[in-house]
């Protein structure tokens, strides 16, 4: 017969052991911060691209609190997009690194408020270092000459990449490449590509739908063209046979 052990809360001894009840730490799930339309749509576009490309095989978050100290809720950051490979997608109210591990990559899309608080960058970089995030990508759409900056966590230090390196834009976690592309509605956006030149882009759900629609239309057009070609060949053959029959009839009359 299996024994039913009492839980700690049900134990009289446990109830007498402490002078007070524990005060649980609160880790907030959200904070109301104004976000412009362009910033929101660029963020959502990148999130959707990653979700479409990797499905549930990569854990992807967007504008979600990442806590990296279980004893201090103030120690947190909120990447516009963060992801961790080798961990399946799940719905998370918050991301606790002591439970899930840190995101392998964090992406910051620079907002107008970020530009007005330049000194905050050092604080933000220090938080990324403490959180143990391996790669940090910073995209500034208002700096067209140099819109991208990258940092890697090396031996406990967050070190900025040299952009003259041919592999500076490589996302090591995914084996892909970061690139900046023009967008018909959002000016320029941050994308991922399979090649360093940025020509083989990962598609967004909308682009995938357009491509699929075009493929279906092209296939239908090819079938129509093939049917028309077959019908034309049959008509040509029938005309030839009719002409032969006419010639044979004419020859028969002359005999």
Describe it.
The structure is a single chain. The protein has 255 residues and is of the alpha+beta class. 37% of the residues lie in helices and 21% in strands. The chain is built from six helices and twelve strands. The strands form three sheets. Strands 1-4-6-7-8-9 form a six-stranded mixed beta sheet, with helices on both faces. The longest helix is centred in the last third of the chain and has 50 residues, at 205-254. The model is unreliable at 1-11 (pLDDT under 50).
Strand content: 15-25%
Low-confidence stretches: 1-11
Give the spatial strand order of the biggest sheet.
Answer: 1-4-6-7-8-9
Please give the alpha-carbon distance between the first and last residues: 114 Å
The number of helices is 6
Mean pLDDT over the full residue set: 86
**Helix-strand string:** HHEEEEEHEHHEEEEEEH
Second rung of CATH, namely the architecture of the largest domain: Alpha-Beta Complex
Please bin the fraction of helical residues.
Answer: 25-40%
CATH topology-level name of the largest domain = tt1808, chain A
Q: Count structural domains.
A: 2
Oligomer: single chain
Can you identify the CATH class of the largest domain? Alpha Beta
Q: Work out the number of β strands.
A: 12
Return Rg in Å: 31 Å
Based on CA inertia axes, which overall geometry fits?
elongated
Largest sheet: 6 strands, mixed
Derived structural class:
alpha+beta
